[in-house]
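Appendix B. Worked example

We walk through a single record from start to finish. Start with the input: the chain for Lipoprotein, Glaciecola nitratireducens, length 280.
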Amino acid sequence: MKKIIVIGLVLLLSGCSTKFVYKNLDWLVYWYVDDFVELSDEQERMVDVKLATWLEWHKNTEIPKYVAHLNELSDDIRLQQISLDKMDYHQQKAAEHWTRLKAKIIPDLVEMAQMLTQEQVDSMFKEIDEMNKDEEKERQELLAKSPEQRQKRSIKRNIKNLERWLGDITSEQESLVENMYGQYHSNGELWLEYRVRYQAELRSLFNKSDRGDEFKAKLNRLLMQPEEYRSELLNQRNDENRNSYKTFLLAVDALATDEQRTHLLSEIADFVEDFSDLAK
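Next comes the structure step. The output line below is what the pipeline stores for this chain.
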């Protein structure tokens, strides 16, 4: 059920399709959820009611916050006031957006989770197991590549991501991307351990026949605070990777041309325009 939370935000921020996705989120949710469980008529009616409530709340309460934040970010970029402190500030603001979204939706998801039959639970975890196998297969295929191939793949992906926001990058910025490789912790194994541990907790919870107050409290905590199930080492390495990436972005910004800043501001402005239209 956690996947229902994710689809809205992930697809909502998917570039030029923002408005299309937002206005068609009802059938997109069903299309996605259908991969995990087949809902009964009663469950579908409840999802319809909850989804309408979520979207109305999001439109009236959250989208204006997104617009204000993006405008604030644009001002910092335009005035060339980006610093590590500013990055921390905007990262915290983004985290607050996500926390509010979870706080609004998760209590409703917990209520709906009580309605799942054992057959639906089994179907859900069967699909999760298949996804885990696919992800592990992809991970093993990547590990089977030579170190040089993995490096080339990573550098190409990071350059493409940078150019998505800045347009063409300079040779100096490309060198920063190349030098960045190898400076980050590879956390694949730790993330796998976390996912196995987290899903085991979910599976154990859903397999209990009693879905009363104890079930609701435990599921709410699992969905609201998944980081509690990550190892201390994983959380530490994630923090270190984030700090390294912010240092990298600061170096890229110091080398940014006027054309690149204009491109970045234009990309952000597109989001602002889409969000503003959706709030009308």
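Two observations about the output. The chain has twelve helices and no strands. The chain has one domain: 2-278.
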